[in-house]
Design goal:
flat
Length: 44
């Protein structure tokens, strides 16, 4: 539920996230980044 709110409230933030994901070098870095994002969203 909260993810939908975040995406519609912070579209420019999500564009940055997608750009960052596409530039990360490997799967491990992507997974770590996604975990960090999930923790960040959970704390909001």
């Amino acid at each position: 539920m909260s993810n939908e709110i975040s995406i519609s409230t912070y579209p420019e933030g999500w564009n940055e996230v997608i750009k960052t994901l596409s530039f990360l070098p490997d799967e491990k870095a992507r997974n770590e980044f996604l975990v960090a994002m999930m923790l960040f969203l959970a704390e909001m």
